[in-house]
Amino acid sequence: MIKIFLGADHRGYELKEKIATWLFDLGYEFEDLGADHFDSSDDYPKYAEQVASLVSKRPHSKGVLLCGSGVGVEVVANKFDGIRAAIGKNVLQVKAGRKDDDMNILVIASDFTDIKEARGML
User: Fold this and answer.
1) What are the angstrom distances between the C-alpha of 26 and each of 29, 30, 96?
2) Rounded to an integer, what is the distance from CA 100 to the centroid of its chain?
3) Which of 37, 56, 74, 117 is 20 to 30 Å from 50 by CA-CA measure?
4) pLDDT for 5-60, tens place per residue?
5) The one catalytic residue among 15, 20, 52, 67
6) 31 belongs to the catalytic site
7) What is the reported pLDDT for 43?
8) Cα–Cα distance between 89 and 78 in angstroms, integer?
9) How confident is the model at residue 50, as a pLDDT?
10) Contacts (Cβ under 8 Å, ≥6 apart) of 92
11) Cβ(33)–Cβ(47) under 8 Å?
12) Closest Cα to residue 122, out of 98, 106, 99?
């Protein structure tokens, strides 16, 4: 089974917590790399680097990153060799990104994505 690495800053924290619950309920092996609590002063690069680093070292793993716009974590993650991170817009776009481009990190813009959309993309 693939392992999923999960990370978010304060703007994505609440949705990340829901995603962790969904992954657990669906039986996926995952590791939540933080934030482990809401901290309004944390910032996305820390979490994007941790997730992208681990996904780049484990070819069959995947990642999910969240921040407010999604742009910050996407830019940081894509600096790592072998990473193909992209902001998910909807279910069909994410499926196409996986199939056509082998996207290995799903980026979710927490300020612009509702819970139903996030669950579908996951």
Assistant:
1) 9, 11, 22
2) 19
3) 117
4) 999 999 999 999 999 999 999 999 999 999 989 988 888 999 999 999 999 999 89
5) 67
6) no
7) 87
8) 18
9) 98
10) none
11) yes
12) 106
